[in-house]
Amino acid sequence: MKRIPPDSVIARKAKLKPIVTVARNLGLRRQDLELYGDYKAKISPDCLKGPAKKRSGKGRYIIVTAITPTPFGEGKTVTTIGLSMALQRIGRKAISCIRQPSLGPVFGIKGGAAGGGYAQVVPTEGINLHLTGDTHAVGLAHNLCAAFLDNELYRANRLAIDQERIYWKRVIDISDRSLRDVRIGLGGRDNGVERATGFDITGASEVMAILALAADLGDLRRRLGRIVVAMNAHGRPVTAEDIGVAGAMAALLKDAFKPNLLQTLENTPCIIHTGPFANIAHGNSSVIADLIAGRYAEYVVTESGFGADCGAEKFFDIKCRSSGLKPDAAVLVCSVRALKMHAGKVRVIAGRPLDKGFLKEDLEAVESGSANLVKQIENIRLFGVPVVVCINRFSTDTARELAIISTIAQEFGAEDCVISELWGKGSAGGVDLARAVEKAAAKRSGFKFLYPLTWPIKEKIGIIARKLYGSRDVVYSDLAEEKISLYESLGYGALPVCMAKTHLSLSHDPSLKGRPEGFTVPVRDIRASIGAGFLSCLCGEVRTMPSLPSHPIGKKVDIDPFGAIRGLS
Hints:
Layout: H1 7-12, H2 19-26, E1 33-35, E2 41-43, E3 60-66, H3 76-89, E4 94-98, H4 103-107, E5 115-116, E6 119-122, H5 124-128, H6 134-154, E7 161-166, E8 170-172, E9 182-184, E10 195-197, E11 199-201, H7 206-213, H8 217-226, E12 228-232, E13 237-239, H9 246-253, E14 260-264, E15 269-272, H10 287-296, E16 299-303, H11 308-323, E17 329-334, H12 336-342, H13 363-381, E18 387-392, H14 399-411, E19 416-420, H15 422-425, H16 431-442, H17 457-469, E20 473-476, H18 478-489, E21 497-500, E22 520-529, E23 534-539, E24 558-559, E25 565-566
Parallel strand pairs: 3-16, 3-17, 4-15, 4-16, 8-11, 17-18, 18-19, 20-22, 21-23
Antiparallel strand pairs: 1-2, 2-14, 5-6, 6-14, 7-12, 9-10, 12-13, 14-15, 22-23, 24-25
Helix pairs in contact: 3-16, 6-7, 6-9, 8-9, 11-13, 12-13, 13-14
């Protein structure tokens, strides 16, 4: 097999077109763009005004998701980017919409998030390091709110804020376990009011979720005002509007609300915008990005974070409720080696060499591990969306292993199962996938939500745990029970729920691989994200501030004497 150069080498050799040319090919005008150099631009939401361009057919909305992740990475971003390229190759106007990577994973265990091989978005370094500064704007807006809140406490506390029921922490866009629980205001009265608090990672910020779910600037401003930062002494919520900071937050986010336009290695368009985490927040790129893409393309290919039980469920039940858009088809990404791992025969640790025996043909392991694939197919079909299974092919895969996966996938309800070589061949390696998606999307989607909003909070949590995860039951801590009673008394019970749990298992326990059964999901806390429009349910030991691994990828990142960045791929 032909040796594929490292991602960074491929990206540096890319022949980029001016971003204004990429935009013009979409139908966007120069006045719709705010340029950040020659190859990056923000898109003005004003491009949604006026009559839509005529297209050769109904715009199709495609979600790309995956089986439960493993340390390998299943190739979901590669598939999202590559599928849009392959659709262009067969004559369809397509745009991919992905999230902006957080610097926590970039410098931690995951590395960059601009795709790989010959299915990348470029320039990769700009994408992985700050891009146009949107994440920093989110952090500033969030922390401004925290500063205003503490100032209210210091200045006589005119709002009667209950110091024991302050919910608003601070955020930072790196993984730093030392900041999870802190005390502030130390050193006497001049340094503020002493109290316990902590930090979350910026991708877990409600402000990030609001930016991702807002339909326009007016909606953004209203959502920011509804943020509940604390309760007062009378048991009533204190909002960002109450402390007088919502307007300033909106001003900080005005430019960040504009999606970022970039291009793939094949000069096809990609919109990158917002970065909510999928194991903590709702895990999908922005509504405004998808609305713009849907106006200018025949196919919008968007990606949801982690497995179908995490990002895809939240895409369907949270993002689609906000946008009003309905998906036409889903692509479920898997790989032979990931399914072998789900068989539970070997423990794989990120960053360590694989056992050579693991890469040999093992039909029994592939068949056993496919239980996870089957469950994720079922999960997508619960929402009435046609699903195409995409096998991200590696050189060690055998024909018999691939055949087993294809047979199982179609037996359990997939419209098709297609082998992808997008990583090694670019769009040429995804033509079969593009045609399978086109065929699936042409069918009538019976899209439906998993639950009505009128259901009580516990019923919503329960159906996700039972139907999506396969649990037997749900148990609630005393704190979670107290929060549920409070939220229902305040009228928050009609909001969707956003489950925060490990992404490494269908369950709450990362050690349970494959398709675990008979477990009980523990809900330890529930946070009210009223501006975002959902309730966040923290399950098991999930953390809202990740930590760095033993050997952070950031140790490899450097610049050479000519200023080129190394070590991000």
